[in-house]
Amino acid sequence: MAQGLTDLSSALAMRLRDIARLLDRLDRLESGTGEWLASQGEGALQEAATDMTLRALRAAADPTNFAILAFLSAHTSAPIAELEAATGFGRLALAERVNDLVQVGLAGRNIDTDHVQGTAAGAALVGLIHNIGEATAKRLAEVLQPVTR
């Protein structure tokens, strides 16, 4: 598996692990059975992994969200005001887009400092999309070459 795919799958797996641990903890409260996590078989894990992967791809495929991810991949941490300037979106609209990216593990947000951070998953997805774009452009240039007879 290419490094970008390995990085992306690892980061998405860690995001799902965090969610599973949260759900397990909730299940261990008085109202739960305490058996939820143990009952999750391979099929349930595959279903969750596929769903999270599709959600991450869908979030990153949006041109504005991709611009946010590309910006974050070039910065360790950025104030929300810098993202506003980079995207042209106002604070309210941008907040929802950042929330969408945070929800699928492609970005992180520190509300105390009003900063947004890129994640390994976000950087891997940006790299993967850039690689696909470069390979596509290269192939396009090849197939558009004049045919000599």
Please describe what this structure looks like.
This protein has 149 residues and is mainly alpha-helical. It has a single domain (3-143), classed as Winged helix-like DNA-binding domain superfamily/Winged helix DNA-binding domain (Arc Repressor Mutant, subunit A), CATH 1.10.10.10. Helices cover 68% and strands 7% of the residues. It contains six helices and three strands, in the order αααβααββα. The protein has helices at residues 3-27, 42-61, 63-73, 80-87, 91-103, 120-143, and strands at 77-79, 107-110, 115-118. A three-stranded antiparallel beta sheet has the order 1-3-2. The radius of gyration is 19 Å and the shape is flat.
In short:
With 149 residues, the chain is mainly alpha-helical.
Topology:
Blueprint: H1 3-27, H2 42-61, H3 63-73, E1 77-79, H4 80-87, H5 91-103, E2 107-110, E3 115-118, H6 120-143
Antiparallel strand pairs: 1-3, 2-3
What's the total helix number?
A: 6
**CATH architecture annotation:** Orthogonal Bundle
Parts with pLDDT < 50 across at least 5 consecutive residues:
none
Find the CATH topology.
Arc Repressor Mutant, subunit A
Q: How many strands, which pairing sense, and closed or not: the largest β-sheet?
A: 3 strands, antiparallel
CATH superfamily label: Winged helix-like DNA-binding domain superfamily/Winged helix DNA-binding domain
What would you call the shape?
A: flat
Spatial strand order of the main sheet:
1-3-2
Number of distinct beta strands: 3
The sequence of SSEs as H and E is HHHEHHEEH
In total, how many domains does the architecture comprise? Answer: 1
CATH class: Mainly Alpha
Rg measurement, Å: 19 Å
Work out the helicity level: 55-70%
The helix/strand class is: mainly alpha
Question: So what's the oligomer here?
Answer: single chain
Distance between the termini: 40 Å
